[in-house]
Amino acid sequence: MKPPMVSIKVRDLTLRFPVYGVDAKSLKKHLARVAVGGRLGRAHSGSAEVTAISNLSFELKAGDRLGLIGHNGSGKTTLLRALSGAYEPDEGEIEVSGRIAPLLDLSLGIDPSATGLENIRLRGRIAGLSAREIDEKMDEIGKFTGLGPFLAMPLKTYSAGMQARLAFAVATAVDADVLLMDEWIAVGDADFQKIAHQRLLSLVERAGILVLASHDHDLIRLYCNKVMRMDGGIGSPVVSVKNLDELLAQPSES
Amino acid sequence: MQIAEHMLRTGSRGTRDEFRRAFADLVASLGKLDLAWSLAWHDVVSRYRGSILGPFWITLSMAFMVLGIGFLYAELQHISLQTTMPFVALGIVFWGMISQVIIEGCETFVQASGMLSQTSLPMFTFVWRTVMRNLATLSHHVVIIVAVVVWFGFWRTMNLPMAILGLVLTLLNISWISLAAAIASARFRDIPQIVMSIMQFSMFMTPVFWQPGTRQGLMNLVLTFNPFFHMLDAIRGPLLGAPADLSSYGILALMALAGWATTFSLFAFTRRRIVHYL
User: Fold this and answer.
1) What kind and span of H or E run contains A95?
2) Which of A63, A148, B7, B225 has the most CB atoms lying inside 10 A of its own CB?
3) Nearest by CB to B190, which of A28, A108, A129?
4) How far apart are CA B177 and CA B74, in angstroms?
5) What is the biggest distance separating any 2 CA atoms in chain A, rounded to whole angstroms?
6) Is A50 helix (H, G, I), strand (E, B) or coil?
7) Residue A176, SS3?
8) What is the pLDDT of residues B140-184, one digit of tens each?
9) Which of the residues B18, B25, B45, B118 would you substitute to probe the A interface, choosing the one with the greatest number of A C-beta atoms within 10 Å?
10) What pLDDT is stored for residue B64 in this prediction?
11) Nearest-CA distance from B251 to chain A in Å?
């Protein structure tokens, strides 16, 4: 069977968040409210619902590098998490063909008391690599971090920059078709930033699709060929990055 | 393959679809048991990092507890050490596993919130992680089991296959209880305390240390309606060469079926929401 082309299809996506306040998290208060006369069906009354994304539709195909722009709380990160498969749509659907690599949080699955090597293994396993794949990549990852003998030491003895190097090296070691990034990850000293930049570029080249959420418009101009503006959970149409200025000039809808 | 090569996520399409998806999560997690094991083993290693004996520290402290309580209860209940010591030893070892799987179940999803909110890993993977972590710990305590079985000569009379059947049935039961605790604790933050109290109470209501004696009156009630009694009985009985009481196995099998049906339904209905609870 021919593998399906790398693509992302989002149709009428609506995502609502129940926001549970402190009260709603307490079973005792929950029961008290029910006992005092709140109807059982309304037991959720202590929690409000926030619509994070409403009626969003777009399609991306191989070669598309989409930049997501918008204010804080406009739904960019939520959209990335939905694309990673963590958040389930409340309405509509998300279809992704291809191997997804979410680089949303570098510290995911990192254990400070474990050694560098152990962390590479653990993080690699979480990212979906088999034990053998990790063995094959271990040398390359180790070399890339430039940490040498420090890899055998616990992560908590590392400086912040060294930790970031390691996390970055592992997170970017996966062969992905779809790369999801929340802000461009720039870490370490100037030297490392340069090679990190190279590596990210090659990753973007290899990956069929990149979705990058960022506030830095220059960055988006540099890496993306398409942009979408999110505003209060509503997405603008996906346009070419050449039209970024026009998109920014449009008044906010909300 | 690794991370879903093809992923389709949709809004709710009715109850049947929710069950189908919950089942798909379960199947996917079974395909990734090696990942669950990696996580579980990492937990064990990191918990005892830097200590010489590692998980054997627990084994050692358990062994002392067995010795102490064994001698004490032999005196208190006027029963020979030959009877009390193996009974207490196996009781403490297996009770430890049962209660830990359930208590640590409360942390299953809460602890994994980072991974649950940004990857598409199956949720059941984290349930198996909790169970496997405790199986790894239990495997260290095999030392105690072997010691008493050999020292007191039970290897001649024990019925190992029945004991293993009992262990399997017990695991099937505590894993659904663990999942139920995981879902409930994700939603309500006071559940772990409640679970802790229940398990403490159950330890005293279950013949972990004390010999049940004759089953009549109140005692019969306490034993018959205590699921943990049946679990311990199904594992410990055959190891101590007692004639197998099939009713315990039947009750455990029925409880596993009913429990999984209920908990799986709960999971199917809450699956979408769990990540938002965290």
Assistant:
1) strand A91-97
2) B7
3) A28
4) 33
5) 65
6) strand
7) coil
8) 999 999 998 898 888 888 888 999 999 999 999 999 999 999 999
9) B118
10) 92
11) 31
pLDDT at A241 over 60: yes
Distance between CA atoms of A201 and A106, rounded to whole angstroms? 17
Is A208:A178 a contact under the CB 8 Å cutoff?
yes
pLDDT tens for each residue of B62-93: 899 999 998 898 888 888 888 888 999 999 99
Specify the residue for token string 């090659």: A202
**Six-digit token string for B48:** 């005892």
Domain range summary for chain B, segments of one domain joined by + = 15-277
- Please name each of the domains of chain A with its CATH number: 7-99+213-249 (3.40.50.300), 103-212 (3.40.50.300)
Contact A109 B115 (CB under 8 A): yes
Of B2, B9, B117, the CB nearest to A129: B2
Q: CB of A50 within 8 A of CB of A17?
A: yes
For residue A100, give how far its alpha carbon lies from the nearest alpha carbon of chain B (Å): 6
Q: Does A87 touch chain B (CB under 8 A)?
A: yes
Residues 6+ apart with CB under 8 A from A207: A101, A176, A177, A178, A179
Its ipTM equals 0.80
CB contact under 8 A, B3 and A127: yes
Chain B: nearest CA to A184, how far in angstroms? 17
